[in-house]
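Example 3.2
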Amino acid sequence: MHIIFVVVILNANLGAPYEAIMEKAIEKGYAGNQTEVIRQALLAYERMIEEEEVRLVNKGIEIEMQEIKEGKIKTENWSEIKKKYNL
């Protein structure tokens, strides 16, 4: 049996403003080192993207529901669907 380890090294030059933010997070105890700051930032960014996607889906539903109420979209009730597809 062979065990293989893969190490990925990321070298990124973030620039002074971002490095200052990282150092502030470390000084305040939110993270122990720069790697932890970056990991936490990526997780926060992922959550932000997911929340934005949910917000956009909900907005789409809201728009479609308004169009249904205004009669712009035709709907069918369950009995019509069952009859249509012989269910």
